[in-house]
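Bench log, entry 3. Co-assembly request; chain sequences pasted below exactly as received.
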Amino acid sequence: MLLSVRQITKSYAGADALVPVLRGVDLDLDKGETLALTGESGSGKSTLLHLIGGLDRPDAGTITLDGIALQGLDDKGRAALRRGDVGVVFQQFNLIPSLRIAANIAFQARLAGRDDPAWDEVLADRLGLTPHLAKYPEQLSGGQQQRVAIARTLAARPKLVLADEPTGNLDEATADSVLTLMLDLVRETGAGLLMVTHSMRLAGAMSRQVHLRAGLVA
Amino acid sequence: MTRAALMALLSHWARNPLQLFTLLSGLALATALWSGVQAINAEARASYDAAAATLGEGRFDQLLAADGGTIAQADYVALRRAGWLVSPVIEGRLNGVRLVGLDVLTAPGGLGPVTLGDDADIGAFLSGGGQIFAHPDVLAQLTGTGAELIPAPDVAPGTAITDIGLAQRLLQREGVLTRLIVATDQPLVQQPLAEVAPRLTLRAAQGGSDIGRLTDSFHLNLTAFGYLAFAVGIFIVHGAIGLAFEQRRPVVRTLRALGVPLNRLIWLMALELAGFAVMAGVIGVALGYVIAAALLPDVAATLRGLYGADGAGSLGLRPMWFLSCLVVALGGTILAAGGALWQLARMPLLTSAQPRAMAMASGRQARLLGSLAALLLGTAGALALWADGLIAGFAILSALLIGAALALPVLLDRVLALGQALSRGVTAGWFWADTRQQLPGLSLALAALLLAMAANVGVSTMVSSFRLTFAGFLDQRLFSELYVYADDAAQAAALEAFVTPRATAVLPLMSVSRDLANAPGELFASRDDLTYRENWQFLDAVPMVWDVLASGEGVLVNEQMARRAGLSLGDPVTVAEGVALRVIGIHGDYGNPIGQAIITESLFQTLYPDVTPTRFGLRLNPDDVPAVSAALRDEFGLPAANIVNQATIKAFSMDVFDRTFTVTAALNVLTLAVAGFAMLMSLLTLAGMRLPQLAPVWSLGMTRRSLGWFELARAVMLALLTAVFALPLGLALAWVLLAIVNVEAFGWRLPMYLFPADYARLGLFALLAATLAALWPALRLARTPPAVLLKVFSNER
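Structure output for the full assembly:
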């Protein structure tokens, strides 16, 4: 078992009282498995993704990633987890605007101490980024930037790839192309993939789907 | 990991060189202003110390002639025989150089600042043609002496030191001494001074050198200016760092999301800033050196004019100064960056990655700043009402300036909100609202502008008030058409007899140096003459003051002596041993640091019969001045320097005055220029962040040209509003300088005059600076290609 989520709860402070977002979610994911997390806006999909990625802490419950219990990690431990074990593909890409595309692709792998220029080249080639390696992010289209974000994540060879609506800003054709590439590469690296999406069409491409409703697995 | 993260952070500057330039130049300029002023201070202080060491001034007790004249060598010999460990000194002017003759074998301070090496030839110093140690700048003036000239940089500027015998010969004053230095350790049994040398009087050692004490006040003002300039600089740095952090928030969030620990990130950013601070500090210190080198000659002239103290005219590089300025640059950066790093440390990982300039002015923060500003301004007001002293004066200045700087964004926001409420039409409404939104990003630059303008208004009001008062004072005091100086008493008597039939009045100028109200001072004699009655004005006086003075029943004192000794009308002042007179008048005496008392001529001659006048003021028909001058030259062979007409003295005095404040004026201009630069940098930095706000307006039908004009108008309007707030702040600053700081530092209080034309001109300069600062960003905006504006929408997610 790569990922095990048990009875996770999370609330945020509202104007008058705490607003529960997750109310006891259970979830499992095996190595090499791809899972689509779907649900209405506000159902808690992104919050769950952030908790699994070590970007935030749950109020209660346990998350275990490849045998490591996240609740036992301090900030430093969580940072190490994000560097080495988890890769997050954000909807907003979150590239570093002052670095060239080549440096952006290699960036997380360097942080993790797993820099592999040959693998970077393969990723760039597969994602059609080779002609753009010397450019800056602002010089690329949205679809190209998302492919850079995917390359950056996969370059570090994470155990688990988390993707938060990675094609939410792309047109349908580009989204399909990006998703196909991502699935192929994830399978090749043997990583697990958990993708948040609104699109039932994209969710259908995953090996499994989990639907969240009002903070619970439906 | 560290390397990759650092590279990512540093790459921001490579992609945004303008921001890096803003940061470095802001810090460099702040350091430059500070270090420049400190360099001037350090250099001048080192000169006084050298002067004090040369003259043994202040450190040792001294014996002086009671009548203010010279000491006979016989008195010195008698004192040595009576067991007094004293050392003779003669001082005089030779070819414009202050020549000091010391007895190297008995002087407690040796040769003052001159260090003799092991191979020094004492024999050569004491005998034959002799040796003269002199500051290198005056060696050329001593070539005719026949002595061996040895450059000695540690000797005070304008000064030369030699053996007393050679000095007496060169000054043609053999057998005469100026004063005797009394060694600290004296024999237990000594014959009393009154028995051995009754004509001499003992002046006790002082804590610091006279010159140093007198010039402290001047340096205090310079130091205050240095702090003010540094504060302006820190505002700029704070703004630059704040904006840089703001723009890097998305990168910081990404780095954290990718696994860079927060602590590591904070350390890296602090390290990065420290590196920049050192770089900018070095540039700033170099710039400061240039500023100091440019201003130092004027400072030296100032000190010579105001106090007769020779300051350095050239600048040396002192390692301590260099290091201390670097430390200040680092400290300033820490101060400016502290808030930004603190915010970074507390920033939640999942906070919005978008620049949040608007949020900087969140209601809570604005309320907090407003409360702090009110507290500081209230403190300034309370101190002004109830506190005394120099420290209180500077505390008021600090509280006033910082309080006003903090209050500015709140006040501007209120004014803009009013403008928004009153505006009609959609464009005007947008303009006011958009300006309000811009305010947080510009507030630091505007605060720098406010401080710079207030400093200009305050300091120029003080200087101009001083100038006006000083000019009136010169008219009041320099009423004689011609001033004549005789070489000796015999010539003086003949001269007085010669001029009496040719002048409407002859006014002898006599004085002795003596302690007045327990401090060194000068006692003058005044002839009972209509001239004085018609011209002199008093700050306070008894009725019929001149009649009382003429009767020998009172004394006039200057303002600084009255303030220092707490004297008021009717208080007694000792003018000679056993003779005390009541104060009957207090007069302004600007430019003179020491106490001065005046008694009537007849009483003076009774008390000090040995003092004969050698200087005279002559009241003449102005048309007769050239003829009388020529007659004096022909009859007595007086050199031109001994005959000075009133116009020359007035012109010289005003010239000295104007040079005195050249430094202040130069610093004023520099500070304003730095503030203008801050505005330019802020506008340029903000320009990139503006596109997402302006693109929608453009898309709705406003031309790029109009947007450019609006940008320009916005900057000018904000500068105008800042100028409006700067005026009362500057006047308050002037009041504190005139009514508190100057009274404590100089001992006199000046009336405050207003100079509306100067303020209007300054306001125009500020608007011009703002226009120039806004021009480039506005032009860039007006020329922004539509494709770039459209990109805002394509990037919008």
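Strands of chain A lie at 3-13, 18-29, 34-39, 60-65, 68-69, 86-89, 160-164, 192-196, 208-213, 216-217. Residues 172-189 of chain A form the longest helix (18 residues).
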